[in-house]
Write a structure and sequence with these properties.
With 217 residues, the protein is an alpha/beta fold. It contains 9 helices and 7 strands. Helices cover 47% and strands 18% of the residues. The chain has a 7-stranded mixed beta sheet with strand order 3-2-1-4-5-7-6, with helices on both faces. The protein is globular. The chain binds S-adenosylmethionine.
Length: 217
């Protein structure tokens, strides 16, 4: 009995594993299909490159298509955007691709080689609008000027998140949007705690929390 059951259970386990992978891939593709065509094409090419180069960090850490769609909708008409937490650069590149007038500054504490690899998938007119800064998001802007969208997807820790909002708040114009990633995530209570500590109101969409800076300034 055992010699038959063992391979059978292995086959079943492998089939289940393959089924889960296919389902995950189908869900990802369905999400990508809802993105603007230029962004969708980049995400498809980046994912293929990530698989080929075994870049597991990209495959697991980048903002997922449903949240990216919400972020891009919020960014519509906004041309001075900041991302805290570059990782491998997919979201910074997607933001720049979605609007040819948009500039994106993205901060990360770690200087990784991956963003340069994925930047090669887009043309110079996109690359030149993306500035990568190595340093903590709480450092705040390098130069004077106003920004209209701040996307926080960095340490996911309470103190850092509070420090980031306080550092960027003076550079956000009235009506600017702050988007926090992973708001409901049970592993990252620091984000909810920071938002509550700062007394920010807003709405939840998917895993994002969206706060609009008071129009009165
Ligand atoms: C979830 S990943 C960001 C994913 C990226 N936004 C995307 O969608 O492709 C989080 C990143 O935040 C970076 N990070 C952690 N603490 C940070 C901090 N204090 N300031 C800036 N970046 C930070 C990490 O190195 C990591 O690359």
């Amino acid at each position: 009995m055992m010699p038959v059951m063992e391979p059978l259970s292995r086959i079943l386990a492998e089939t289940r594993h393959r089924g889960r992978r296919l389902l995950g891939e189908a869900r990802w593709l369905a999400g990508v299909a809802t993105l603007p065509p230029r962004v969708a094409l980049f995400q498809l090419r980046a994912r293929r490159l990530a698989r080929r180069s075994q870049d597991r960090f990209s495959l697991t850490s980048v903002t997922r298509p449903p949240d990216l769609r919400v972020l891009l909708a919020l960014a519509r008409g906004r041309t001075r955007t900041v991302e805290l937490g570059t990782a491998t650069g997919w979201t910074a590149i997607s933001l720049a691709l979605a609007d040819p007038r948009r500039r994106v500054i993205s901060y990360d504490v770690v200087e990784r080689p991956e963003p340069q690899r994925y930047l090669k998938l887009v043309g110079p007119s996109v690359r030149e609008r993306i500035e990568l800064v190595t340093g903590p998001g709480s450092r705040g802007p390098e130069r004077a000027g106003h920004f209209d969208l701040l996307y926080i997807d960095s340490s996911h820790e309470r103190e850092q998140t509070i420090a980031e909002v306080l550092a960027w708040r003076p550079a956000l114009g009235p009506g600017a949007t702050i988007v926090f990633d992973d708001y409901p995530h049970p592993d990252y209570p620091g984000i909810r705690e920071a938002i509550s500590e700062l007394g920010l109101d807003g709405e939840e969409r998917g895993t994002l929390f969206i706060h609009t800076v008071d129009r009165a300034g």
